[in-house]
Amino acid sequence: MRVLSVLSFAFIGVLMTGLGASRAHAAPAATPAIQSQMNAQGCFACHAVDMKIVGPAYGWVAYRFAHQKDAVQKLAHKIISGGAGEWNAWTGGIAMPPHPDLSLAQAEAMARWVLAQKPIAPPPPG
């Protein structure tokens, strides 16, 4: 009986430790609406959460915008207007196309999801 109690507490401890660690490092899943919008706009063709494809990783973007109070608005504007220059050292100057068909609310929802990713410092360019 005592062995069962000890094992139960050990199991609960392992679960609690694992849950805390996974929450600290797990990226939030995109809601179906955000996933659908980002798929429709082709976001995942150029971006991944933790590595560069064509554009910067979402984790790099979260890192760059960390602690900026107006990050959602800045990124939403960039999503709608497109842009180039800020990531040239990593992208070779490939511009992000504009997405003018998105509403500001849609772009802000996408920006919030991107900024909620685990911040990852970009590697040295090159």
Q: Considering DSSP H and I runs of 4 or more, what fraction of the residues is helical?
A: 55-70%
Q: Tell me the CATH superfamily of the domain at 29-115.
A: Cytochrome c-like domain
> Please, what is the average pLDDT?
83
Secondary structure tally, helices:
7
Radius of gyration: 19 Å
CATH class descriptor name of the domain at 29-115: Mainly Alpha
Structural class: mainly alpha
Count of distinct strands: 0
CATH topology of the domain at 29-115: Cytochrome Bc1 Complex, Chain D, domain 2
> What is the beta-strand fraction?
under 5%
Sum up the overall morphology in one term: globular
Mind telling me which CATH architecture of the domain at 29-115 this is?
A: Orthogonal Bundle
The oligomeric state is single chain
Uncertain segments: 3-25
Order of helices and strands: HHHHHHH
Major sheet, described briefly?
A: none
| CA distance, first residue to last residue | 61 Å
Salient structural properties:
126 residues
Can you summarize this structure?
This protein is an all-alpha fold and about 130 residues long. The chain has 7 helices and no strands. The longest helix has 24 residues, at about 1-25.
Overall description:
This protein is mainly α and 126 residues long. It has a domain at 29-115: Cytochrome Bc1 Complex, Chain D, domain 2 (Orthogonal Bundle). 58% of the residues lie in helices and 0% in strands. The chain has helices at residues 2-25, 32-41, 43-46, 58-65, 71-81, 88-91, 104-115. Residues 3-25 have low confidence and may be disordered.
